[in-house]
What does this fold into?
Amino acid sequence: MDQRAELSEFLRSRRARLKPGDVGLPDFGRHRRVPGLRREELAQLAGVSVAYYTRLEQGNGQNVSTEVLDAIARALRLTEAEQQHLTHLAKPTTTKKKRAAMARQQRVRPELQHLIDSMESVPAYLLGRRLDLLAWNRMAAALIGDFVELPPEERNFARHVFLDPTARERYLEWEDKAAEVVGVLRLCAGCYPDDPLLTALVGELSVKSDEFRTLWAAHTVRQKGHGSKRLHHPVVGELTLSYETLKMPDEHDLSLVTYYAEPGSASADSLRLLASWAAAPETGSRPTPVTPPTGAA
It folds into this structure.
């Protein structure tokens, strides 16, 4: 991906979403020729010269200091994830460690797989770089879908949300889920701009999904965190489930996502029913997910 173009477009998009009144500046209404803040207004808020900020917005961020980036992030009212993304774009660091991470096949430690499998009543799955699905338990397969039926290179959550028709039926607020997925993937792209497999994934989704292409162009950035989702399951009906995302301490590219229901709620009853259905002999036992081949993780 073109790092300079990404930096330029990201800053423009964040500046365009702010109105003068949002930051305490006078708004001259119809006399304004550009949406959002002008460059000179943003530069004034950040305490830098207009020429300096203009160079940065044109993609020239090689020599920008951390202090200036922090000031611009405050002026643009960036979230923590957006500030992290801005730093990745303005001060890219393609270190040996990053190159090794992109080339290395992501593997799931047996102990981690055992932990996921032991969560018999909790849907849980493990996401890697590019939102690749690396591991999941029987409850996750029952709730979302059994990805073992897919070729390893297609086990990806972004592909599932945008290219699998069942995802639109499963997530009752599909638009919110789609925006979340794109925001997380955009953050990954800022961290690994030279990842050819990530570039290929974005290209494929852009060609095959109008919704993805529109969301990607918005430059929204998000962290995968916690919240709640409303889902519809063909066996147990509608569920409202909370989710938590846990980063692995020894490998930050891995995230364990778990779903749970409020104790005593109708969704908790439905989740128990789903667990009974998933454990029934006629459903079969879930095969162990095959480790993706080199370059496909």
